[in-house]
Input
Amino acid sequence: MSQFSNRVRGFDDNLLRVVQYAVPLADRDDWLRVWQSEIWHLNHRRIARPDTQATLAAGLIRDALWLRTEAWKRALEGTAISCMAILALLCLASAVLALVLTGSRQELMLEFGAPYRRFLVEAVLVVLVTFATIFRRHGHQASATIPRIRRRVFFLFKSALVLQLAFLISADICQPLHAAFPLAHDILQTFVAVVLSIAGLRWGFHDQETRCKHCLTALESPARIGRPSHNLLEWNGTEQVCRHGHGRLNLPEMETSWCRSGQWLDRRSENHQVA
Amino acid sequence: MSTRLSHSAALILKALSLGFCFGLDVMEMTGLPSGTVYPALRRLERDGLVTSNWEPEQEATRNGRPARRYYQVTPEGTSAALAATERYPLLARLLPESSA
Output
């Protein structure tokens, strides 16, 4: 640390000491050095401007908070937790909208109770049909037990949230019809709920397949590999990678009899093979 | 592809391109509060429009002051600043070239 750092005293020093804890540990030394230097230069200006000094405090606080929120954003972007949190927030927003549309909690239970019970039966059928008809494109190597269990638990919770969301959205959309056309409301609500559930579950499968098989983070940096073939005898497609370096997913441009599905390539097993 | 900038970010980028390369100088030149300038500098750096470096410690010590972090506009930043000047014509009047 610079010999000038101890020349920042009084209010500024106390502020730096407190606010530094908002800065992520990796950036803290650099942040402290920047602000100690800025404060020193401010205090040693030839032409002192008191208004600048007052606003510098706001700058260092907002700078620290920006670094913190960026670190959180980087850490959570594309993770299973953020996916679940977004779905849960959408469910909550839909539930609040339903509450507003019906007027009270009692009315909500009264109006949505029977459709929800009906939806639970529909959901079983939707899940069965979706599982039966989905084409799982991406084969991957056998993985360790814990990541496999984690993947399944994530898929289970995600599917449950998607189904809840499908029901709530369908109920919100059709609610205005409830009083005037009860029969039409029931039919339309069932239809919308089934369509949204199927679409949601298919998205859930797709989302699951395009996540890292180890850490469940969404794969990124899609890059084209190979060159387009005229005779279908050359492999070409897209490659996506896990940002934590756990592996990569190769997706063929088109399905051929000898290369029908994509493949997850685990980095650790690749390293093991090389060794 | 040029990046679309907010008016504040464009003003800061313009000040940097005119040679005001320290946070405090940018703040005083643009008249923007520090709570806008410093996070905006971070964002510009994240987006690759500016880079930042520490000035050499020896040089600063020789002048009897601590080293400062200075910002430089990248080629992408230069084209973004040009695009911003077209989008916000008043920028040229707020920060005329001669003020550098």
Q: What stands out?
A: Residues 220-274 of chain A form one domain. Chain A has three domains: 2-76, 80-209, 220-274.
